[in-house]
Amino acid sequence: MKKYLFITSCTLLFACSLVTLLSSPRHVSTFPMRDFVPVSPVATTSNLVAVMRVVDGDTIDIAQGEQVVRVRLIGINTPETVDPRRPVECFGKEASLHAQAVLEGQWVRIEGDEGQDTYDKYGRLLAYVYLSDGTLFNKQMIADGYAYEYTYRLPYKFQKVFKEAERSAREEGKGLWASGVCDEQNRKHSVAK
């Protein structure tokens, strides 16, 4: 009986700890750049991290050891959905849902950019996110019309590629660029961030 109570107590304690860890919307600023994985575009199981939560289309939480680290994707901006000071912007929900469908619960590889800061002013790690098949998720969000190319202060490694992806998405009318989806005023508001 004592053994059964001990095992049950341990199981409950573990489950509660896991729920607390996964539901905490915290971000950690202790993720050193030296822990970034090599630049190789194809991920292997030894250099992948788990996506714990998609905050919105351009921000995710990853598991780094026992910590949850908030990551802001470099070079993209999606229409706003979570900022309490701003209304939900056109195509924001669609961008967030798409990011959730692709990333949540998946293993990804993250990569910093030597031309950018390690963290943004909110303490989020700045990174590129590669899917397990080597696809650069940041670029794919732009190419599929879920995100805008976004340059914050300094040029970044994939700036030209991302700008071209946005130009193509606009010309092909993909996602938020589709006719009648978002009016020009909504797009200008989103891009101005």
Describe this structure as you would to a colleague:
- The protein is of the alpha+beta class and 193 residues long.
- The chain has one domain: OB fold (Dihydrolipoamide Acetyltransferase, E2P) (Beta Barrel), CATH 2.40.50.
- It is 33% helix and 19% strand.
- The protein contains 5 helices and 7 strands; from the N terminus they run H-E-E-E-E-H-E-E-H-E-H-H.
- Strands 1-2-3-6-5 form a 5-stranded mixed β-barrel. A two-stranded antiparallel sheet has the order 4-7.
- Helix 3 runs parallel beside helix 4.
- The relative contact order is 0.15.
- The C terminus is likely disordered.
Would you kindly provide a brief summary of this structure?
By secondary structure, this protein is α+β, with helices and mostly antiparallel strands. It is built from 5 helices and 7 strands. Helix 3 packs parallel to helix 4.
